[in-house]
Amino acid sequence: MSTAVTSGSWPSATADTSTFTGLGTDHVRWGNVADGAKSGYVFRGGTVEVQLDGTEFTLGTFTHENFPIPALPTPQFDVDLTVRVEFEDGTTSDFSFRFHHNETPNEGPAPEDLVDLPTFVSPEEVTVDGQKYQVVISGFKQNGQIVRQFVSAEGGANSADVVALFARAGEPDVVLTNVHYRGQATQQADEYVEIMNRGSEPADISGWRLGADDAGQDYVFPQGTVLQPGERIRVYTNESHPEWGGHSYGINRPIWNNQGDTALLQNADGDTVSDLPYGNKVPATP
């Protein structure tokens, strides 16, 4: 584990920047109105603990100041972010990301503005002990959930932590991250297993198998199932959630042992890629 300090600035945008102020700082604004009434982005870094094993950390806090402004000539545009990471040994590295902004109409059934990241992986690399790493953004942490699209209500400042990790450059890294084995819905239909790609490259998991506690209770991922860097999906017992990939066993009874077991993820060759003990199968802490 290493302590690092993060900071950020917004150096450029793909829109007409004649109404922009603050480019090159951590607070960029836009709109043909006075500065205090403009919309904009803020990035605030801080002191964080980082590891190189795929452990997530808070890269910084993203705030969208979403105020009613006159319609922009181009309502969708990109704003670039540069994040500087200064490690405890004094070395620094800059990592860049692009935020895609959708300035939706202020009135109507969905006035919320939308913020996406066209790519979640920094193009820059840092070398530690001979190994190259890139920063991968997992998403925005809102209300305890990590989501990949930031939905920003109109008329205020909306914030979320930007959650990221250091990933080995040029490699996927698929792991089981959570077994939600005590469902609350009928027949525990809302049980799920969460899977994440902690790597910096997409992972094709077509034909991979998620093993449940009994023989024959396996879920095989369909052809074309690809996990993007930093992406999470869930396999539910008997619910469909498109926002989590839409995967479901489709079984009308509980699958995951409420006492404990070990979830297994195997590739198409039958090799175990990741295992995750839960409940009473979790090894005791020494």
Set out the fold topology.
Blueprint: E1 2-13, E2 27-30, E3 39-44, E4 47-50, E5 57-66, E6 76-87, E7 92-102, E8 113-116, E9 126-128, E10 131-142, E11 145-147, E12 149-152, E13 156-168, E14 174-180, E15 192-197, E16 203-204, E17 209-211, E18 218-220, E19 226-227, E20 232-236, E21 247-248, E22 260-266, E23 272-279
What report would you give on this structure?
The protein has 286 residues and is mainly beta. Helices cover 0% and strands 50% of the residues. It folds into 2 domains: 2-168, no CATH class; 174-279, Immunoglobulin-like, CATH 2.60.40.1260. It has strands spanning 2-13, 27-30, 39-44, 47-50, 57-66, 76-87, 92-102, 113-116, 126-128, 131-142, 145-147, 149-152, 156-168, 174-180, 192-197, 203-204, 209-211, 218-220, 226-227, 232-236, 247-248, 260-266, 272-279. Strands 2, 3, 5, 9, 10, 11 and 13 form a 7-stranded antiparallel β-sheet that branches. It has a 6-stranded antiparallel β-sheet with strand order 4-1-6-7-8-12, with no helix packed on it. Strand 10 (131-142) and strand 11 form a beta hairpin.
Number of distinct beta strands: 23
Number of helices: 0
**How many domains, as an integer?**
2
Rounded to an integer in angstroms, the radius of gyration calculated over CA atoms is: 21 Å
* Strand percentage: over 45%
Low-confidence stretches: none
- Secondary-structure-based class equals mainly beta
User: Which geometry do the CA atoms define?
Assistant: globular
